[in-house]
Design brief:
- With 267 residues, the protein is an all-alpha fold.
- The chain has a domain of 171 residues: MetI-like (MetI-like fold, Orthogonal Bundle), CATH 1.10.3720.10.
- Helix content is 81%, strand content 0%.
- The protein starts with a helix and ends with a helix.
């Protein structure tokens, strides 16, 4: 029996290692060759910051980074607010209305990106709106909002409705009950929804390609339009991976530090 358990543990551990290697080895490989002195992606000729230096001197790439970050931040902020308010409203709605609204909310999530992209492009054309960074931002808000709703709504279902009602009975206004009672309890879900919205906007290509203006391109569109491979993309990808890793570490570290601080204050 013990041998079977050990064999099973060895199998599951080995399988886990293979899966993690399959996911993370390409990323480590990319990060390693971002410091390569030559353009080769096969042989490492020597350590160098050459591609990071070229990245900082490439105006077109820097402009695409600026557009990407700007649109992602705006889309994340607006979609987080709209999605959170919508999720709170749906949590209090009648079952029939809530189910219909959730089915409609799932359409942009389940639809292929190309369908959503063409739909938004035709909408802007029918309204005679010139495609620009504005249409790009509106498109990103449109497909990011459903992800925020789907992230926040499960947390709202776990809340005790009596807490908000007690706040209203004690004299709090609906706005005060929302800001001081409901929002603090669902802050982790809101933060998770914002991170998902930011990553979806930052990574998007198909919808951006159909809704952006001629003079506007994000990072994914810039990489797609490259005629030749530029190793500076490796440097950019490495910086993005480091930034995302730091955000995730802080997102998990800060709540843990706060919880530890609160425990010390209680004692």
């Amino acid at each position: 029996m013990e041998r079977k358990k050990r064999g099973w543990r060895f199998f599951t551990s080995g399988y886990l290692v293979l899966v993690l290697a399959f996911i993370y080895l390409p990323i480590f490989y990319l990060m390693l060759f971002s410091f390569n002195d030559s353009k080769s992606m096969i042989s490492f000729s020597g350590f160098s910051l050459r591609w990071y230096h070229e990245l900082l001197e490439n105006r077109e790439m820097l402009q695409s980074i600026w557009y990407t970050v700007l649109v992602a931040l705006i889309a994340t902020g607006v979609s987080t607010v709209i999605g959170t308010v919508a999720a709170i409203g749906l949590s209090k709605a009648r079952p029939l209305l809530r189910n219909v609204a959730l089915e409609v909310n799932n359409l942009p999530v389940l639809n292929p990106d190309v369908v959503t992209a063409i739909s938004l492009m035709l909408l802007f054309l029918s309204m005679k709106v010139q495609r620009s960074i504005v249409t790009l931002t509106l498109a990103h808000i449109t497909f990011c909002t459903p992800y925020v709703i789907l992230t926040v709504l499960p947390k709202l279902r776990q809340l005790d409705d009596n807490v908000a009602e007690a706040a209203l009975d004690l004299g709090a206004s609906p706005v005060q009950a929302l800001l001081k009672v409901i929002i603090p309890q669902i802050t982790p879900a809101i933060f998770s929804g914002a991170l998902i919205a930011f990553s979806m906007s930052f990574d998007d290509f198909v919808i951006s390609f159909f809704t952006a203006g001629v003079d506007v391109q994000n990072i994914s569109m810039y990489v797609y339009s490259m005629k030749r491979f530029n190793p500076s993309v490796n440097a950019l990808s490495t910086l993005i991976v480091i930034a995302v890793t730091l955000i995730l570490v802080l997102a998990n570290l800060i709540p843990a530090l706060r919880e530890r601080k609160n425990k010390k204050e209680e004692f």
